[in-house]
């Protein structure tokens, strides 16, 4: 029997272990914000993988956004050295999950198994992918103790809030250099027959308009900052949004609507702060002298970040030409450039071959509408040979009743295991 067939057979035999592992991970509520139970889940993963012969490093991202004594940003990196020198394959999964939200019909942290699906916050995004990579790696090292190179598995913090306490910090510390790691697979939920090559870019900024406070009964004595912001939004509707809709990309971005440039108004805050929930009085009558808007601009690999910013500045310039006393400030909050791994990259070719062998179809190639931790591996680690591949349906991420299919995890684990064989086992051994 071929080694790859034996590997797939063994993964099938560990179905119950895969289910239990996924449930255990879901039942650790690693909510971000604020960053709960990071150390608990890292210790859980460390104990499991240490028992399989992996060397463990626990790394706290001291001083990164959100890190505190109450909510320390912990990461775990597990490494298994082969018997012979060779390349390193790294599976990176984030351990944090987003807020639960409303509308659940199952326990968000119960890990309920029903009709072949495991439900819970993070089941799809991305504890199912983490569990699948662990099973794949464990089966591989059991069947191939003489493999060449190394296998790494990491559980990292804060991907949902930018990844600065996770992959970005580790990349800065040298964990993702091309000398240490040669192939990276991030098991994000992009569907089991898809390879995600990269993502669009993002520019977050806060726009603030200014006015003058005055009594609400005499607004003519003040200057309303909210009305100024209203004019900004009107100009965006009239000029910027139509212009963005005309920009299209050759990147295989999914879903279809994300093949154009987009702008989301994330939030608007104007005037007085909201009252505390236990206060039932009325606000004071004041003309607001400040209004802040956070924008989330997603841009294409064909666009330049300077042009992206200039388009927003042109909106503000146009408004200023039409309104007296228009004053504003713009503060950049976050920027990530688009990234896309080439289809002929080694990790892409190997995973595509494994998808075809496992599922009997050619792999689809996609690009994510939003960013994920590939941005840090690429820009900080300078490692281009990186993709996202994992089980789960992208549309379920961050939704109520999030789930991951057990069969999808099994198939994805087989793809990951076959990829390890191709990358770390000599041809004569893989035929045994």
From TrEMBL:
Enzyme Commission code(s) on record: 3.5.1.18
Keyword Lipoprotein: no
Pfam family of the protein (one): M20_dimer
GO molecular function ontology, one term from the record: metal ion binding
Keyword Membrane in record: no
Domain Peptidase M20 dimerisation: 198-321
Keywords noted in UniProt: Cobalt, Hydrolase, Metal-binding, Zinc
Cofactor: Zn(2+); Co(2+)
InterPro entries: ArgE/DapE, Bact_exopeptidase_dim_dom, Peptidase_M20, Peptidase_M20_dimer, Peptidase_M20A
Protein family according to the UniProt entry: Belongs to the peptidase M20A family.
NCBIfam families: DapE-ArgE, PRK13013.1
UniProt-recorded name of the protein: Succinyl-diaminopimelate desuccinylase
């Amino acid at each position: 029997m071929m080694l790859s067939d034996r590997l797939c057979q063994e993964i099938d035999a560990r179905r119950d272990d895969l289910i239990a592992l996924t449930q255990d991970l879901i039942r650790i509520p690693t909510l971000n914000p604020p960053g709960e139970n990071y150390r608990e889940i890292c210790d859980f993963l460390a104990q499991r993988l240490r028992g399989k012969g992996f060397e463990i490093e626990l790394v706290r991202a001291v001083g990164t956004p959100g890190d505190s004594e109450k909510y320390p940003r912990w990461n775990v990196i597990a490494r298994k050295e082969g018997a012979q020198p060779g390349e390193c394959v790294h599976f990176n999964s984030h351990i944090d999950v987003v807020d639960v939200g409303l509308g659940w019909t199952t326990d968000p942290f119960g890990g309920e198994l029903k009709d072949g699906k495991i439900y819970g916050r993070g089941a799809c995004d991305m504890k199912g992918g983490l569990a699948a990579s662990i099973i794949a790696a464990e089966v591989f090292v059991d069947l191939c103790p003489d493999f060449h190179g190394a296998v790494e598995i990491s559980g990292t913090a804060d991907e949902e809030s930018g990844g600065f306490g996770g992959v970005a910090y580790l990349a800065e510390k040298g964990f993702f250099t091309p000398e240490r790691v040669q192939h990276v697979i991030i098991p994000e939920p992009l569907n089991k027959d898809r390879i995600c090559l990269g993502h669009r870019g993002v520019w977050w900024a806060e726009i603030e308009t200014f006015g003058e406070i005055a009594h609400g009964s005499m607004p003519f004595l003040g200057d309303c900052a909210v009305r100024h912001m209203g004019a900004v939004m009107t100009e965006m509707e009239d000029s910027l949004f139509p212009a963005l809709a005309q920009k299209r990309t050759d990147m295989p971005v999914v879903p279809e609507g994300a093949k154009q440039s987009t702008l989301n108004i994330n939030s608007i805050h104007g005037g007085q702060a909201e009252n505390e929930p236990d206060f039932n009085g009325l606000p004071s009558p004041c003309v607001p002298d400040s209004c802040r808007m956070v924008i989330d601009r997603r841009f294409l690999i064909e666009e330049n970040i300077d042009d992206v910013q200039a388009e927003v500045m042109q909106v503000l310039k146009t408004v200023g030409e039409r309104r007296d006393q228009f004053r504003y400030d713009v503060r950049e909050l976050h920027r990530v450039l688009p990234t896309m791994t080439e289809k002929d990259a080694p990790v892409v070719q190997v995973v595509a071959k494994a998808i075809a062998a496992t599922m009997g179809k050619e792999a689809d190639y996609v690009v994510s509408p939003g960013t994920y931790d590939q941005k840090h591996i690429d820009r900080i680690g300078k490692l281009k040979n990186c993709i996202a591949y994992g089980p789960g349906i992208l549309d379920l991420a961050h939704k109520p009743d999030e789930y991951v299919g057990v069969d999808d995890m099994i198939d994805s684990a087989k793809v990951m295991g076959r990829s390890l064989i191709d990358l770390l086992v000599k041809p004569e051994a893989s035929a045994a």
